[in-house]
Design a protein that fits this description.
Peptide Methionine Sulfoxide Reductase, Chain A; six-stranded mixed beta sheet; two-stranded antiparallel ribbon; alpha+beta; single chain; 7 helices; globular
Length: 237
């Protein structure tokens, strides 16, 4: 009996569900993680921040995480890539095996005068992914889909640790946060075909089921930070 099938590449989820329905088979498809309205961080970046800063986050498939932050006001760019492993293994066909140390990640360049690092983490934890899922998000499983933060400096490390402790202490989620904080790592951009994937493929079944609800949640929960037109990698000069 067919239970579920949610690939990222190959036979599409919706096509598979449609074929199963014709065959009289009932399928419960995996959908996007539930969005949560969570409090802002009590500890955030200090005043007088520079004009540009970088945050690197991993929260499952980078298509959705990139897509979310491309719609956040104050973000100058969001690039999909790999972090946590060696340069020689920073390739999709290797990372997808789950044994390289890499996580599918997104490098977010932002203006601290418009949005703080703490607010970026608030969006990350509330709409971009589920931080209580260990080594998986939605239909994707493996350490390459882990929830992780890669701080750029000691201050980001301090803010991230404090925020996770704050949310866990308040029992904001139904389970403990499993997000790891990994220092001293290097980000490597992903292949060109992974960049702007959500924006370029809004009708792709995986995107429709798993990622478009995140964009909707961003607009609903953070209207003051949402922008309709995403900042795309392909549009940069």
């Amino acid at each position: 009996m067919i239970a579920s099938f949610t690939p990222r590449l190959g036979l599409s989820t919706l096509a598979f569900v449609g074929l199963a329905a014709l065959a009289g088979v009932s399928i419960s498809a995996t959908t996007a993680e539930e969005a949560h309205k969570i409090p802002p961080p009590a500890l955030d970046e200090p005043a007088g921040a520079p004009d540009s800063a970088v945050a690197v986050l991993a929260g499952g498939c980078f298509w959705g995480v990139q897509g979310v932050f491309q719609h956040v006001d104050g973000v100058a760019s969001a690039v999909s890539g790999y972090d946590g492993g060696a340069a020689s293994a920073a390739h999709y066909d290797m990372t997808s095996q789950g044994d390289t140390g890499h996580a599918e990640s997104v490098r977010i360049t932002y203006d601290p005068h418009k949005i703080s690092y703490g607010r970026i983490l608030q969006i990350f934890f509330s709409v971009a992914h589920d931080p209580t899922e260990l080594n998986r998000q939605g239909p994707d499983e493996g350490t390459q889909y882990r929830s992780a933060i890669f701080p750029s400096d000691a201050e980001q490390n301090r803010v991230a640790k404090a925020y996770i402790a704050q949310l866990d202490q308040a029992h904001v989620f139904g389970a403990p946060i499993v997000t790891t904080i990994e220092t001293g790592k290097t980000f490597y951009p992903a292949e060109a075909y992974h960049q702007d994937f959500l924006a370029k493929n809004p009708t792709y079944p995986y995107i429709v089921i798993n990622d478009l609800p995140k964009i909707e949640a961003l607009e609903r929960l953070f209207p003051e930070l949402y922008r309709a037109d995403p900042v795309l990698v392909g549009s940069r000069s």
